[in-house]
Structures are given as C-alpha cells and as structure tokens.
Amino acid sequence: MLTIDHNDTLTAARTGTLALPHGTIEVPAFMPVGTNGTVKAISHAAVDNMGYRLILGNTYHLYLRPGKEVFETYGGLHAFSSWPHNILTDSGGFQVFSLAPFRKIRDEGVRFRSHIDGSYHHLTPESVVEFQRTLGSDIMMCLDECTPPEISYKKAIEACRRTTAWAKRSKVRWDIEREAGFEGKLFGIIQGNFFKDLRKISSEEIIELDFPGIAIGGLSVGEPKETFEEYLAYTSQFLPSEKPRYLMGIGTPDYIFAAVENGIDLFDCVFATRTARNGTVFTKDGMINLKKAGHALDKGPIEEGCTCQACTRYSRGYMRHLFKAGELFGPMLATEHNLQFLYDLMVEIRHSIREDRFSSFKKNFLDRYVKKGN
Amino acid sequence: MLTIDHNDTLTAARTGTLALPHGTIEVPAFMPVGTNGTVKAISHAAVDNMGYRLILGNTYHLYLRPGKEVFETYGGLHAFSSWPHNILTDSGGFQVFSLAPFRKIRDEGVRFRSHIDGSYHHLTPESVVEFQRTLGSDIMMCLDECTPPEISYKKAIEACRRTTAWAKRSKVRWDIEREAGFEGKLFGIIQGNFFKDLRKISSEEIIELDFPGIAIGGLSVGEPKETFEEYLAYTSQFLPSEKPRYLMGIGTPDYIFAAVENGIDLFDCVFATRTARNGTVFTKDGMINLKKAGHALDKGPIEEGCTCQACTRYSRGYMRHLFKAGELFGPMLATEHNLQFLYDLMVEIRHSIREDRFSSFKKNFLDRYVKKGN
C-alpha cells in the first residue's frame, strides 16, 4: 500500500506513494476537508485540477445528513459527490464529542443528539465501519474517544482503553466487509491524551492490531504548540515505518512541517478553507487578512507567482472589495488560493525531502513565514 | 452600432449585432447582473465561458463601495473586476429609490443616505455620467426617476418631466466625455409610469435627444403581468427601429419572450441569480425548488441535456443535499445552471427569429414551461 521512495537523512521525513482503491497519491500529502460531500466554497473539479487526489469526508455529518439511504441509492459518496479520486472518512467520534449537544459514552458505543435537529442516534464501532463502507471510503477510521487537554489521568486511561476495545471491534467488522469484497482500508487511531505512558500503551495496542495504516488522534486539540510537538515526536517514534501515518486535524505550515519532520504521511484540517471564508489567506510572508483597509488600492496579487485564479486574475484590492461587500466570490477565490498554497507547499516539501534539503527548506520557509506574518 | 440581420415576419422581434467598445454581441441578449463587480456566486471566467459578452454593474453600489478612488486607481471596472468584455452600468437611480433609507429629490439631483453606513451622498445627472465614465462603462444610463405603480398622475408627470430634464443634462455631460475620447455609449430612459399619455410624451422627449440607445424604465416594478405587457407593447411602438432597445429589470422566460416579441434587444434581471441562491432553478418544465424532499433520491440532473456543471456532473439529490446542508457549492452550481439556462434560451430565441418561427417557438416553450411549472 505504501511505497517509500526516499527517507530524509536528517529527520524522519519521507516521500513515497500510497496505493488506494481510487488511485495512487504522493505522500506526504495534505487532504482538503469536504465535510458534507463538498469542499466548502470550491468545486470538486477545481480541487481535482489543482492535483489533489485524496479528500476527507466527515462521517458524523454525512450520517446525519443526507443519511444512509441516500448513499445506498447513489452507490456511495464518490458517485453522490462526483469525486473520482480517493476519500478518507473519519469515524465521527471527534464530531460527536465537539458538535453534538448531548452524548453518553458506554463501552457498547456512543449515544448522542444531532446538532441539526436534536434527534437521538447511536453509533457503535461496528455501525461506523458499516456506514463508511456504505460511503465507499478508500480509507475509513475506527471509532475512537478523543479527549481534550487537562482531563484527569483516570479519564484518559478510560478513553484509551475504550479506544483500543473499539479498534478491535472495528477490525472484526472491517474483516467481514473485506471478505465481502470491500477494498477500503481501515486505519487505527492512537489516543492517550497528554500522558506519555498512555500514548505508549495506546501506540502498542493499536499497532498490535495490524491495521493497514495508523493515525495519531487527540493532538492539536487546544494544547500549546510545544506540547503538540512534544507529543507528536513522542508518539511518532512508536509507529511502524512501513505503514502510512496520518496525523488528524492539522494543516498550517508550521504544524505541517512538524508533522512531516516526524515521518507523518497524511494530514487534514479545515483551517485553510475556514479561514479563507473569513478573508484570511496564506502567503509566504505569513497570513494576511484581506479585509484590512491597507489592501484597498493594492494592485498586487495575494502571492506573486501563485497559479491560482485569485492570484493570476485579481488584485488584493479587488479581493478586499469582495469581502467588504459580502460577495460569495470572495470566499470562493480565497478558498482556491489557500488550497493551492498548501498543494504547492506539499510539492515543495516532497522535492526538498527527495533532494535531502528538507531541514533547510523548513528553516527558510518558516523564518520568512513566521517573521513577516501578521 | 446596431446591425439588424433579421426581422421576424409575425412580430417585432429581431436579431442583430451590437458593436460596443469591448466587442460585438448578438442580440436579443440577456445580461447577467454583476452588482458589486462580480456576478454573485460565480466567477467571471465561468460567465465568459458560457458565452456572455455583456454584463451589468450597479452604479449605486459601486459608487458607495468600493468608491471612485478605487476605480481611478485600477483604471475602471473592467480592470478592477477582470472582465474583458462589455459592461452596462445603470444610473443608480433605481437603487436610490429602492434601497436608500432616505432620499430627497430636487431638480438639481437626488440626495440620499447610504444603506451601508448611513452616510449622505448627492448624485446629479452630471456626476452619474462622470462616475460611469470612471467605471469605463460600455453602455451608461441617464439618471432617471423610476416610480412605483399606483402613484398619482401629478407625481407621474413630475417624475416624467424630471427624467427628461435629467436626460438632457446627462447628454450634455456625455458629449463632453466623448469629445475627450470616451467611447462608452449613453442610453436614455423612458418613464411615464402607468399612464399612456405620459409614456408617449416621455418616449417622444427621450427619442428626440438622439441617444445611441433607448431604454424602457419603470416596468416590471410590481404591476400585474397584463399591465406590464400592455405598457411594454404601448411604449415599444414609439422606439426607433434602428437603435438598440433595452428593457430594464426583466429576466424570466415569459417576460423575456414578451420583450423579444416587442423588439427589445437587451434586458437584465437579478432574478436568475438571486433565486438560484435560494435553491430555485429554471427547467423547461418550469421552475423547481431543489430543497424539496422529493428530490432527495433523484439521480437525474436539473435539466437533461443542459451543458452546465450542475447538470453534467451532479444529480438533483446532491443539489438538494447542498442546499439543505447550507453549503456554498449549492448556490454556486444553481447560479451556473440558471445563467446557462437563460444563455441557451437566448440562443434558441435568436435561431427561431432567424428561421421565422419565433411565435411558434414561444408558444411551445411557454406551453411546457407554464403548464408543468410549480
């Protein structure tokens, strides 16, 4: 499934290809988030044209709306949303914990109320695998219990134990689907909160289950950046090098560099698209807020040399006007730019790894990005 | 400026080409509305690719935001909004009357408060021509006084008289701009409310001023459809056949057919794009609301045979899901469809005129459109 073509000499960074049911992708790769079967404010055609071959869908959202019957009718999420390449779906666990107005976790599964209409639902490790099979996910995730920073050790143990138990049940259910011909891969998720012994135990237990890929969950959930980096490095060391490694929920340049440096192959985040809709865009000199008055008469593009529609056709002044006027074309263009920026960054990162200059590229990029940013 | 290549044998419908500073367009033509220098929820590139060569901008909005300094800096609306083809701008009069929270009309001009920030502004026929010259409009409109149905005869006379006086002053100001090398055309606007003698007087007075083109204003402002058709036919008879004729503010199939039948060459309306953003789209069987539950499992496109992205790539069920989930891609796709629908309708209308079968095409189209519509 994963073919590593180059290992960095100074860090754990590596490049390779990941063979999935809907085609092969180059890693390390950033995945745009398509929560509801659409990456917000941009067409799948544009995401495809940029070069993205793997996007993420949210099981929690798709389970609640449009729901299973729709995906059964259309034959899965690829056909429904007209996306010909790969789709990774999360397990819905994170959203149950962060979005649902009520949840009750038992060993059997999690009962929760929909944030949309207040209706009650019950998810189990088995039903989550089954729903992701209905979606036709190329990579599906095990139901896990993601916990916020600063919970007690006792609660963290409990979540860690439950995550392993659910992972085992997920794998049993996935094996049944595989035997029936389903080609999607199931990834296990490491939890353990911010306790190193629990991170180690969770890593060992999840790795033991021999999933095709391993994800690190429960990081970038509100902890300080130093803590994130410490726990990322600590957890990464346990991961088998021959399997794809997925760090859930990160997608800013500094976190991306940290992930790649620790040998992570895949990551996703809503940040690029969400912040774009608020008028904030990536540049090599840091993020800029297009709404600021200083851009009103600026004839330059967001980023000189960027190949996106916003940068090749429009000025910062025009972009500012769109956001000030509340025009949808503002979010549309800014989304396109931010996704192009991250796509191009990943291309550059992969080149730098193959040419054994990842660390210097990281330093040069972040020096400029962090120093000049506002 | 206008070359008529065919006159329908049964009606006043005609086809031809209109030569404007940014290229030649085929008429009769529908103009998408790009209020703030963008057609809402769609890129100029997509509007261009469909074949549109003339779009409308709103002077009132652009004057208030981003304002004159921006257009002076960027060298006009074409450069600012990256639209290489023609732009018609209205005079702002209609918006002052419909949007501004306060207005005071005097012979000198109109004083009003901005609906955006409450600031006070003053527009005169001269300043409106000057601002449209700054925009670089290919077709600019005279400041006029548009009145709603059921006002008194006395008020209608007054608005009619003022519209003519303002048209004269607009023409004087435009002549100065032309002598300075400005190539945009100025169109006069006929008013007269729903009084035939005033419509006749206004027509005679505006036509007398020998503008390059004539617009009919003050129709489709809330009156019954029969009244609209009666006053359209009554006013159209006075228009010189050799000049382009523009009917302001209409853009549904039934009103488009009525306009074309009366020899109208140009029309614009926000309806197609506004209603798209609410999930309502044109089909040959009438308009449909994509939010309806009945579409949830519908695998068919909005309109079989339509070449737009929505119809070639997505199902009604997916479109419904996007609107139910509040995803921006719903308005984006629906906007594209509605503009494609009207573009295709205009192509078919022009063909039918050239082949002397406009009346039968109209009957067949509207029979299906009106009977099956919901």
UniProtKB/TrEMBL annotation, chains A, B:
One GO process term, biological-process aspect: tRNA queuosine(34) biosynthetic process
Residues reported in the UniProt entry to bind substrate: 90-94, 144, 191, 218
Catalytic site: 90 (proton acceptor), 268 (nucleophile)
One MF annotation (Gene Ontology) recorded for this entry: metal ion binding
The enzyme's E.C. designation: 2.4.2.29
Record carries keyword Ribosomal protein: no
Swiss-Prot/TrEMBL cofactor(s): Zn(2+)
Tagged with keyword Transferase: yes
Catalytic activity, as annotated: 7-aminomethyl-7-carbaguanine + guanosine(34) in tRNA = 7-aminomethyl-7-carbaguanosine(34) in tRNA + guanine
Manner of cofactor binding, per the entry note: Binds 1 zinc ion per subunit.
Gene3D superfamilies linked: Queuine tRNA-ribosyltransferase-like
Region (RNA binding): 249-255, 273-277
Domain tRNA-guanine(15) transglycosylase-like: 12-369
Chain positions recorded as Zn(2+) binding sites: 306, 308, 311, 337
Annotated metabolic or biological route of this protein: tRNA modification; tRNA-queuosine biosynthesis
The entry's keywords: Glycosyltransferase, Metal-binding, Queuosine biosynthesis, Transferase, tRNA processing, Zinc
Recorded GO CC terms: cytoplasm
Oligomer and partners: Homodimer. Within each dimer, one monomer is responsible for RNA recognition and catalysis, while the other monomer binds to the replacement base PreQ1.
Family affiliation: Belongs to the queuine tRNA-ribosyltransferase family.
Entries under HAMAP family matching the protein: Q_tRNA_Tgt
Function of the molecule: Catalyzes the base-exchange of a guanine (G) residue with the queuine precursor 7-aminomethyl-7-deazaguanine (PreQ1) at position 34 (anticodon wobble position) in tRNAs with GU(N) anticodons (tRNA-Asp, -Asn, -His and -Tyr). Catalysis occurs through a double-displacement mechanism. The nucleophile active site attacks the C1' of nucleotide 34 to detach the guanine base from the RNA, forming a covalent enzyme-RNA intermediate. The proton acceptor active site deprotonates the incoming PreQ1, allowing a nucleophilic attack on the C1' of the ribose to form the product.
Protein name from the UniProt record: Queuine tRNA-ribosyltransferase
Natural source organism: Sediminispirochaeta smaragdinae (strain DSM 11293 / JCM 15392 / SEBR 4228)
Lineage, top ranks: Bacteria, Pseudomonadati, Spirochaetota, Spirochaetia, Spirochaetales
Recorded name of the encoding gene: tgt
